[in-house]
């Protein structure tokens, strides 16, 4: 088999298998979540505190058993960075990583499932690379195939997943990246594997963001500027907290203690405000339906609390992703602004704020654009472009600010 044929075979075969594996891990996450929370006392403060604390204790034990040096190694950006690190055999770690990812989502962590799926895919890719790869290029192809297949299945956006893996913070693509055609092929096959496996396991459909009906106008991009700015500022708050939180947790002591303390703090927050649990993807409809009852200050507290809870979880050993929690926080803030300024349509407010915050948090505007288009459709493309542009500008400014602080 020549190199070109082998590359396409890896992209197709392993892409499909990695997508199916991602669906299985996601199903286990959701099954644990359903088992723990889908009953009458699932919203009782004492029960919430107990379950999350137990989950944190399990994660602390897994971290201690794996002999990892730090507690905060679970965000999407860190997983993507580790994806292209030197290859290591991770046969034992793969199972432990899968368990920790399932615990983080199932026990109510304020995180999305994507980083856990990425970590499991990376572990499997490392093992497969040892068996199949004949060169560093093939090693990278296998790792990229596993990553884009998992993300494509979760987001339902093959183009966005293909770009996300190698897009840098400045919007450029890594010069040593796997050819885009192979990544896109792997993403499509991964989505197929994910869909078939997900349908077989759950018979569920992909859920887009629950946006109110809205007819676009030519002024959406201008109308969206205030909420896009709010979303960008909320994203900057997350970046600052994510930078400072590991330093604060380091004063506690060992990673084991850090995870326990962070989990207890998050458990107390969730017991007081149950909407802070989970990724927020499925909770957004409930929050928007009750936005009038929550009022401006309640929605603002929900947005800020979600950012803080997400940061504590990601830096405190709860392996997960920031994309869906960031969108939830941005939507809550957008709804608060909408209550103050009803002239800004709620759909425009949510799309622009979510686009801005996701761009700031992830630093990958092209990938955010492609993924958000799949999640929101054509609800308000002008607002989405305005949000992403403002978010990109805010992220660029923050990068310059960090360079100045380091100098």
TrEMBL record:
Q: Which GO terms describe its cellular component?
A: membrane
Cited Gene3D superfamilies: Clc chloride channel
User: Which Gene Ontology molecular-function terms are recorded?
Assistant: chloride transmembrane transporter activity
Membrane topology designation: Multi-pass membrane protein
Q: Which Pfam families match?
A: Voltage_CLC (PF00654)
Q: What is its main location?
A: membrane
Q: Which InterPro entries match?
A: Cl-channel_core, ClC, ClC-type_chloride_channel
Q: Which residue windows are transmembrane per the record?
A: 7-29, 44-62, 94-111, 117-134, 180-201, 221-239, 259-276, 296-315, 327-354, 366-393
Please indicate if the UniProt record lists Nucleus as a keyword. Answer: no
Q: Which domain of life is it from?
A: Bacteria
Q: Where in the cell is it found?
A: Membrane
Keyword set, alphabetical order:
Membrane, Transmembrane, Transmembrane helix
The residues forming a coiled coil are none
UniProt-recorded name of the protein: Chloride channel protein
Organism expressing this protein natively: Paralysiella testudinis
């Amino acid at each position: 088999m020549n190199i070109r044929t082998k590359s396409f075979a890896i992209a197709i075969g392993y892409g499909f298998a990695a997508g199916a594996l991602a669906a299985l891990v996601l199903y286990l996450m959701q099954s644990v979540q359903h088992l723990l929370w889908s009953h009458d006392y699932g919203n009782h403060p004492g029960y919430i505190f107990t379950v999350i604390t137990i989950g944190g204790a399990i994660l602390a034990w897994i971290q201690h058993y794996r002999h990892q040096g730090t507690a905060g190694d679970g965000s999407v950006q860190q997983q993507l960075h580790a994806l292209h690190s030197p290859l290591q055999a991770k046969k034992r770690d793969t199972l432990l990583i899968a368990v920790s990812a399932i615990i983080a989502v199932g026990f109510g962590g304020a995180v999305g499932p994507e980083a856990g799926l990425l970590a499991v895919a990376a572990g499997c890719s490392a093992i497969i690379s040892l068996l199949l790869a004949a060169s560093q290029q093939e090693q990278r192809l296998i790792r990229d195939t596993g990553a884009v297949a998992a993300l494509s299945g979760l987001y339902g956006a093959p183009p966005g997943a293909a770009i996300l893996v190698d897009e840098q913070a400045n919007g450029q693509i890594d010069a040593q990246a796997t050819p885009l055609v192979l990544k896109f092929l792997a993403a499509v096959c991964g989505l197929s594997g994910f869909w078939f496996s997900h349908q077989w396991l759950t018979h569920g459909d992909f859920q887009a963001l629950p946006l109110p009906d809205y007819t676009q106008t030519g002024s959406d991009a201008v109308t969206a500027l205030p909420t896009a700015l709010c979303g960008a500022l909320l994203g900057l708050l997350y970046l600052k907290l994510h930078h400072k939180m590991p330093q604060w947790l380091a004063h506690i002591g060992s990673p084991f203690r850090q995870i326990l303390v962070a989990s207890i703090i998050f458990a107390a927050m969730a017991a007081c405000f149950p909407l802070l649990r989970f990724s927020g993807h499925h909770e957004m409809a409930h929050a928007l339906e009750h936005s009038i009852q929550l009022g401006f200050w309640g929605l603002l507290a929900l947005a800020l609390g979600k950012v803080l809870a997400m940061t504590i979880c990601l830096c405190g050993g709860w392996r997960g992703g920031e994309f869906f929690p960031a969108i939830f926080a941005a939507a809550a803030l957008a709804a608060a602004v909408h209550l103050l300024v009803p002239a800004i349509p709620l759909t425009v407010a949510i799309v622009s704020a979510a686009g801005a915050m996701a761009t700031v948090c992830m630093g990958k505007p092209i990938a955010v654009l492609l993924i958000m288009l799949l999640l929101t459709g054509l609800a308000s493309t002008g607002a989405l472009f305005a949000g992403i542009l403002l978010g990109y500008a805010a992220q660029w400014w923050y990068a310059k600010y960090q360079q100045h602080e380091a100098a």
